[in-house]
Amino acid sequence: MEHMLGDLGSKIKQHINLYANLSQQILIHLKDYPTIHVVF
């Protein structure tokens, strides 16, 4: 059971890292459009 939770935790961390990188890239692109405000 702990092993499954460990795998799940690592997968969640991977998804969080992916989302963080993606949102970072989106924010970088949005700097070209100052009229757009992104609310997280």
Structure overview:
The protein has 40 residues and is an all-alpha fold. Helices cover 72% and strands 0% of the residues. The protein is built from 1 helix and no strands. The chain has one helix at residues 2-30. The radius of gyration is 15 Å and the shape is rod-shaped. The N and C termini lie far apart (34 Å).
| Tally of separate helices | 1
What sort of overall outline do the alpha carbons produce when their principal axes are compared?
rod-shaped
- Secondary structure class reads mainly alpha
Quick one: biggest sheet?
none
Whole-number mean pLDDT:
82
Q: Would you identify the regions where 5 or more consecutive residues have pLDDT less than 50?
A: none
Range of strand content = under 5%
Kindly provide the radius of gyration, computed on alpha-carbon positions and rounded to a whole number of angstroms.
15 Å
- Helix amount: over 70%
The number of strands is 0
| Gap between N and C termini | 34 Å
Order of helices and strands: H
